[in-house]
């Protein structure tokens, strides 16, 4: 990949524990690696796609905030890395995501709303993720995910184990979680 700018490594104390952080800037997208000092040969890795509403505002329309919380707790305890992948709204961006939310307000599900806006159900790409894992010399990982497509998308990385994320559904995200399972093949 061309034009990747990499920051220094800095220490970030959090309510979960103390992590190291490093930014990988790809064009206008600034991806973040959050990691611990004690990284094993087969580290626990979470590839977390940006979801501003879920991660920062406490939205319970999706399960992103809960998944990030679970991942940070797990990495703090077991060591490993979270790649905070700046592909908001499955890579359609925040504006389009909110337009899709507006369509969902009229009764469409998350996949149908994306299609109506001219997008695929999932527009994410994973080249930068592989770049970051390669940068850290991680070739075998234990991937924290409910999404088997993520394993298929990591072509040059061996996923030796899939670790599930256990999320409790609520009345707002129950339909979203159901669609993820039925239409997008997630293992919930
Ligand atoms: Zn979300």
Write the layout of secondary structure elements.
Blueprint: E1 4-6, E2 10-13, E3 18-26, E4 29-35, E5 44-49, H1 52-55, H2 64-78, E6 80-85, H3 88-91, H4 93-105, H5 110-116, H6 127-135, E7 140-144, H7 148-153, E8 158-163, H8 174-184
Parallel strand pairs: 5-6, 5-7, 7-8
Antiparallel strand pairs: 1-3, 2-3, 3-4, 4-6
Question: What does this molecule look like?
Answer:
- By secondary structure, this protein is of the alpha/beta class.
- The protein has a single domain (4-87, 124-184), classed as GTP cyclohydrolase II (Rossmann fold, 3-Layer(aba) Sandwich), CATH 3.40.50.
- It contains 8 helices and 8 strands, in the order βββββααβααααβαβα.
- The longest helix has 15 residues, at 64-78.
- It starts with a strand and ends with a helix.
- The structure holds zinc ion.
- The site of zinc ion has 4 residues, from loops.
- Residues 51, 54, 62, 64 line the site of zinc ion (ZN).
CATH superfamily: GTP cyclohydrolase II
Strand content: 15-25%
Q: Which descriptor suits the 3D outline?
A: globular
User: Unreliable stretches, pLDDT < 50, 5 or more residues?
Assistant: none
Helical segment count: 8
CATH class: Alpha Beta
> Secondary-structure element sequence?
EEEEEHHEHHHHEHEH
CATH architecture: 3-Layer(aba) Sandwich
Structural class: alpha/beta
Number of domains: 1
Q: Give the N-terminus to C-terminus distance in angstroms.
A: 34 Å
Short overview:
Helices cover 37% and strands 24% of the residues. It contains eight helices and eight strands.
